[in-house]
Design brief:
The chain is α+β, with helices and mostly antiparallel strands. Helix content is about 25%, strand content about 30%. A four-stranded antiparallel β-sheet has the order 1-2-4-3, with helices on one face. The chain is globular and about 35 Å long.
């Protein structure tokens, strides 16, 4: 039986270059590594949710950085979209 801890996450939206749209979710290295184990499932859930609320944003991939995880998207997301 696993116990999921409730975590309050904050988001930082940034654009890096002309084609890289990123959502940075700060978290510690242990949480990021745990999250990245099921990355394909998370991408599917994120894209399904974005499609269901009729946004044109698509999550391309998730990577781990020293700041947390970075979700790269096809369009710049506004804070109201997240």
């Amino acid at each position: 039986m696993t116990v999921m801890a409730r975590v309050n996450l904050s988001l930082a939206l940034t654009t890096k270059g002309s084609f890289h749209k990123q959502i940075i979710i700060p978290m510690n290295k242990e949480m990021a590594n745990r999250y990245i184990k099921d990355v394909s499932t998370h991408i599917c859930i994120i894209n399904h949710t974005l499609k269901s609320i009729k946004l044109t944003i698509i999550a391309d991939f998730i990577s781990v950085d020293n700041k947390g995880i970075i979700i790269s998207t096809n369009n710049v997301a506004s804070p109201s979209n997240i």
